[in-house]
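To the wet lab folks,

You asked to see what we're planning to order before we commit. Fair enough. Below is the target structure as tokens, and below that is the sequence we designed to fit it. If anything looks off to you, flag it before the synthesis order goes out.
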């Protein structure tokens, strides 16, 4: 059954999970067991939920699926505290998600920056996401899947007690434009049967969708609110954040005051500092006057440069002067630590770079017939039209050689354009040599002198770097023992010399693939740390 016809388990609330189990003729209490496997044990496969009856697992696997996201590529900062991942959804689209680690010995934090949409429709000029356009909203399960992906990574790296401590919706998309699914994901993650994350550890960032801010203030869960302000007046903000034309600053601040009065929680205003645009002392004073009397906090953000964007980050001395001016006027202010600039951690950058690489790859592998080679004598081929005045002919974007200039000799191994026949000569293949190796003797591979990596053998590598009996062209010969024993999980069976002698003292018996997580009788046991 295709995934489109099955339910996404990560999108189901506890009551919806009970309904699903009733539909496959199971009692509702099974829902708690499934939730335990998903959110506590972090299972990725329904078949591994071993305290569920096998027939139930089969029926549940036919009616639902569990993992809506899978990693495509990943970047890691030099200090290994910021990890950004490009995730592929079930329909092939991609989103970005970031893990930020704050290793405080007393209170370590592990924050997931989650996306809420594929792309964004709001078109903020200082954001990379909007440049790719809007494609669709994410489901609650696709949002939850981002958190669970990093929860597994954290547990694998730091041990079973490590867990995600905070979630911020500051990734791709406008969360309040997909409010229904974002809120459902928050309820699932907050549920004691689910991820059991406190609501006050969740923050929603918005550019200022006023009706949704008022709706958020009335919700039973008190999540944090962060507003991307970036300017102290309507004229500048409308240029940076076009939605300001619909919800100007006066309406936005009125909604923020309502939120603070109802929830008794302060609003965070995010302010990215742009060189020569919004970073003057006069603008700092204007911002302080605008926010006076509001329960709020200003988070100053050093701008992360975006390819194709004309804005540049403010110099640090101007950032510090801006911060000092706000504080002197009674506005609580912090300066965000720069995290991930070198790994393009700003939302939309990794996805945009991946899209550009794909387009460049398609252009590089386009058929050569699309760009015809230059012809001698200026005569067009059949069906061609002149592409330049005076009857001159060009071939795609190839540069034309000035009249009278001699043709430079092509370097060895490269094709030559416009030879005596007027055609492209194909590139010469790299130097090749024959290598021996078991049944594949005589296989050709590029010479190491050409800079190519050698062809991988089918036999797994040895821990000690020694080749197996089938590597190095030796093969197995009757009556001769191989130079090295087989690796665990590698070739089955004992070497000929071991068949007659069994397991002698000082000689390790050949290992076989373990069953049910246990090593075979007589085999040396090795911990994972020794591998």
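Sequence we intend to order:
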């Amino acid at each position: 059954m295709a995934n489109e016809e099955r339910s996404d388990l990560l999108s189901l609330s506890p009551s919806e999970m009970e309904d699903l189990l009733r539909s496959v003729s199971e009692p509702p209490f099974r829902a708690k067991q499934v939730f335990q496997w998903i959110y506590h044990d972090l299972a990725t496969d329904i078949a591994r939920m071993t305290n569920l009856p096998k027939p139930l697992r089969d029926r549940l696997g036919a009616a639902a699926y569990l993992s809506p996201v899978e990693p495509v590529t990943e970047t890691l900062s030099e200090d290994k505290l910021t990890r950004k991942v490009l995730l592929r959804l079930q329909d092939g689209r991609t989103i970005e998600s970031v893990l930020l680690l704050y290793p405080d010995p007393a209170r370590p934090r592990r924050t997931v920056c989650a996306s809420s949409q594929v792309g964004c429709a709001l078109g903020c000029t200082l954001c990379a996401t909007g440049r790719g356009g809007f494609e669709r909203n994410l489901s609650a399960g696709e949002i939850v899947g981002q958190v669970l992906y990093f929860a597994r990574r954290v547990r694998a790296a730091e041990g079973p007690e490590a867990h995600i401590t905070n979630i911020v919706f500051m990734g791709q998309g406008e969360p309040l434009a997909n409010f229904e699914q974002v809120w459902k994901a928050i309820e699932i993650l907050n549920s004691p049967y689910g991820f059991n994350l406190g609501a006050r550890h969740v923050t929603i960032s918005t550019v200022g969708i006023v009706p949704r801010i008022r709706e958020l203030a009335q919700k039973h869960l008190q999540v944090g609110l962060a507003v991307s302000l970036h300017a102290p007046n309507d004229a500048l903000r409308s240029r940076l954040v076009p939605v300001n034309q619909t919800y100007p600053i006066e309406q936005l601040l009125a909604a923020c005051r309502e939120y603070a009065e109802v929830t008794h929680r302060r609003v965070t205003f995010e302010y990215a500092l742009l060189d020569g645009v919004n970073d003057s002392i006069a603008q700092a004073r204007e911002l302080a006057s605008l926010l006076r009397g509001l329960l709020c906090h200003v988070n100053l953000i050093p701008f992360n440069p975006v390819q194709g964007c004309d804005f540049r980050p403010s110099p640090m001395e101007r950032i510090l002067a801006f911060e000092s001016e706000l504080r002197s006027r009674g506005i609580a202010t912090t300066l965000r630590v720069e995290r991930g600039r070198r790994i393009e951690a700003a939302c939309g950058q990794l996805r945009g770079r991946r899209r550009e690489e794909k387009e460049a790859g398609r252009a590089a592998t386009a058929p050569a017939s699309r760009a015809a080679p230059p012809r001698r004598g200026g005569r067009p081929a059949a069906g061609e039209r002149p592409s330049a005045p005076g009857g001159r002919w060009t071939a795609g974007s190839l540069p034309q050689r000035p009249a009278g200039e001699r043709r430079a000799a092509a370097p060895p191994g490269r094709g030559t354009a416009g030879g005596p026949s007027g055609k492209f000569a194909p590139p010469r293949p790299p130097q090749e040599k024959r290598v021996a190796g078991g049944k594949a003797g005589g296989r050709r591979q590029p010479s190491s002198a050409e800079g190519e990596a050698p062809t991988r053998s089918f036999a797994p590598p040895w821990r000690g770097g020694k080749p197996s009996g089938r590597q190095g062209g030796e093969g197995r010969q009757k009556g001769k023992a191989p130079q090295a024993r087989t690796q665990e999980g590698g070739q089955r069976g004992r070497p000929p010399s071991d068949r007659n002698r069994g397991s002698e003292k000082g000689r390790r018996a050949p290992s076989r693939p373990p069953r049910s997580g246990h090593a075979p009788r007589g085999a040396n046991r090795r911990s994972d740390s020794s591998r």
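Structural context that might help your review: The first strand starts at residue 7 and ends at 8. Residues 368-506, 516-531 have pLDDT under 50 and may be disordered.

Thanks,
Computational group
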